[in-house]
Design goal:
- The complex is a heterodimer of chains A (about 60) and B (about 375).
- Chain A has about 60 residues and is mainly alpha-helical.
- Helix content of chain A is about 80%, strand content about 0%.
- Chain A has helices at about 1-20, 25-45, 55-65.
- The longest helix of chain A is centred in the middle third of the chain and has 22 residues, at about 25-45.
- Chain B has helices spanning about 10-20, 25-30, 40-60, 70-75, 80-110, 115-135, 135-160, 180-190, 210-240, 250-255, 265-295, 305-320, 325-335, 340-355.
- Chain B starts with 9 loop residues before the first helix and ends in a 10-residue tail after the last helix.
- The chains are: A mainly alpha (about 60), B mainly alpha (about 375).
Chain lengths: ~60, ~375
C-alpha cells in the first residue's frame, strides 16, 4: 500500500516539478514541495494506521462544552 | 491584478452559486431541526442568508476586481491580512473536507456499502483537482452543464411524488417552540446560504464587477425555491417519519412507483448529489488553492491542486467516527462555528474599510 502511495506521489512530482524548474519558479517549487511533503506524511501515517488528531471532533467538543 | 485571468459572466456565476448552495443540501435538508416546519424555517433562513449576502456584495463592490487576499492585505496590513486570510482559507478547507465526508457517508451508507471511504473520497478528489486546476471558467461551465440536469431530475421526482403527498403531514403548523424554530431558521441561513462567503474569492473574476449582488440574490432565491420544494416533498411524503432517516430526500424518492414500472428512481437523488456536491467541492478546492497561492505570493495557483486536494481528502477521513457525529456537528456545532467566518470576517473587513475610507483613490490601498 505504501509503495502504491509513493508511486502516486511520484507521478504528481513528475508531472509538476520539471515544468516549475524549467520556468525557474523557485518559490512555487518550494511551496509545492512543502505542501506535498505534508500530504505525503499524513498519507503514510494514515496508511500505517497511526491515530491522527481529529480536528472536527475537537471543534465540536469545544462548542458543546 | 490577481492570479485568476479567466472571467465569468453573471449568468455563469449565478448558476454556480445555485449549484454550490444545492451541493449537499439536496440530501441533508437544511432547517431539519424544525421537523415538518422546515420549509417555513428555510424561508426565514433565506432572509438571514440574504443579509449575509448583502455584506459580501457590498465588500465586493467596494473593491471591484480586487482579489480577496489583496483586500485583506489593504485593510489589515501585510501580516494581519495574511493571518485573517489563513483563518478564512482554513474554514473553506475544512468545509471542503466536510463535503467529502458527506460523500463518503452517503455512498457508504446507501450505495457502495463495501467500498472503503478512501476510494470514494479520492475518486472525487481526483476529478475535482482536474477541474479546479483548469480555473474558474471551467468550474463555471461545469455548473452550466450540470445544473439544468439536476433541476430537471429534481422537478421530475417532485412531480412523480405529488400523488403521495398527505396534507395532514404538514399539520399542526408551527407547533414547535419559537426558540427551536428560529434556531432551525438560523441553521438554514448558515448551511447553506452563509457558505456563499466562499464566492468572495470568485467575485473579482466577474466580467461585470457591479453585479455581484444581483448574482447572489438570484442564486439564493432560486436555491431557496428548490430547497423549499424539497422540504415540502419530504414532509408531504414522509411526514414526521422524515426525522428518523439520515437522508430523507433519498427515502422520499424511494416511494415513487408509477404503475409498478417506474420505480427505484431514488438513484436520481444520488446523481444530483454527486453532480452538485462535486461542484461545491471543486469550487471550494479552487478557492483554497487560489487564496493560498495569493497568500504565499505565487505566480500560479494550479500547482497546489494536488497537495491541497489530498490534504482535504485526508482530513475528510478523520472528520467523524460515524454518521451520527456528522449530524450532531451539523445541528449543534456548525450554526455557531461557521458564524465568525461567514459574518465576522467579511463584516469586520467592511467596517474597517469604511472607517479607513478604503480603497483610497489613486493610491494602491
Amino acid at each position: 500500500m505504501i509503495l502504491l502511495l509513493l508511486f502516486g506521489f511520484s507521478l504528481i512530482f513528475l508531472r509538476e516539478v520539471p515544468r516549475l524548474i524549467q520556468r525557474r519558479y523557485w518559490r512555487e517549487l518550494l511551496v509545492f514541495c512543502l505542501f506535498m511533503a505534508v500530504a505525503l506524511l499524513f498519507s503514510v501515517l494514515l496508511t500505517i494506521g497511526v491515530k491522527l488528531p481529529q480536528v472536527t471532533t475537537a471543534i465540536g467538543d469545544f462548542f458543546l462544552k | 491584478m490577481g492570479l485568476e485571468q479567466g472571467r465569468i459572466s453573471a449568468t455563469q456565476l449565478t448558476m454556480l452559486i445555485i449549484s454550490f448552495l444545492l451541493g449537499t443540501t439536496l440530501l441533508f435538508s437544511p432547517g431539519g431541526v424544525a421537523g415538518r416546519d422546515s420549509w417555513i424555517a428555510l424561508l426565514v433562513g433565506m432572509v438571514e442568508g440574504l443579509l449575509f449576502a448583502f455584506i459580501y456584495a457590498t465588500l465586493a463592490v467596494r473593491f471591484p476586481g480586487r482579489p480577496l487576499i489583496q483586500v485583506f492585505h489593504s485593510v489589515y496590513g501585510s501580516v494581519g491580512g495574511k493571518v485573517i486570510a489563513l483563518f478564512f482559507l482554513g474554514y473553506l478547507f475544512h468545509l471542503g473536507s466536510l463535503v467529502l465526508t458527506n460523500f463518503s457517508f452517503f455512498f457508504n451508507t446507501l450505495i457502495l456499502i463495501e467500498t472503503p471511504s478512501a476510494v470514494i473520497v479520492f475518486s472525487i478528489v481526483a476529478i475535482s483537482v482536474y477541474a479546479a486546476r483548469h480555473g474558474l471558467e471551467v468550474v463555471a461551465r461545469c455548473g452550466q452543464v450540470l445544473l439544468p440536469f439536476a433541476l430537471f431530475f429534481f422537478i421530475l421526482t417532485f412531480i412523480l411524488l405529488i400523488k403521495d403527498f398527505r396534507l395532514e403531514h404538514f399539520q399542526p403548523v408551527l407547533a414547535i417552540s419559537a426558540k427551536r424554530f428560529f434556531f432551525a431558521a438560523h441553521s438554514a441561513a448558515v448551511f447553506p446560504f452563509g457558505e456563499s462567503v466562499g464566492f468572495l474569492l470568485a467575485l473579482p473574476a466577474l466580467s461585470d464587477p457591479e453585479k455581484p449582488w444581483k448574482c447572489l440574490l438570484l442564486g439564493i432565491i432560486i436555491s431557496t425555491g428548490v430547497l423549499v420544494l424539497s422540504a415540502l416533498r419530504n414532509t408531504g411524503t414522509l411526514g414526521i417519519l422524515q426525522d428518523i432517516f439520515f437522508f430523507p430526500s433519498f427515502q422520499a424518492t424511494r416511494q415513487i412507483n408509477v404503475g409498478q414500472i417506474l420505480t427505484r428512481v431514488e438513484i436520481l437523488v444520488a446523481v444530483n448529489f454527486l453532480a452538485m456536491g462535486f461542484l461545491k467541492y471543486t469550487f471550494l478546492l479552487y478557492g483554497v488553492i487560489l487564496g493560498t497561492a495569493e497568500v504565499f505570493g505565487l505566480r500560479e495557483y494550479r500547482i497546489l491542486g494536488y497537495p491541497v486536494g489530498i490534504l482535504m481528502g485526508i482530513l475528510s477521513l478523520l472528520n467523524f467516527a460515524g454518521i451520527h457525529e456528522n449530524f450532531e456537528f451539523l445541528e449543534k456545532v456548525y450554526p455557531f462555528y461557521a458564524l465568525p467566518f461567514q459574518v465576522g470576517i467579511p463584516l469586520f473587513t467592511l467596517i474597517i474599510a469604511m472607517i479607513r475610507k478604503l480603497p483610497r483613490e489613486g493610491g494602491e490601498t
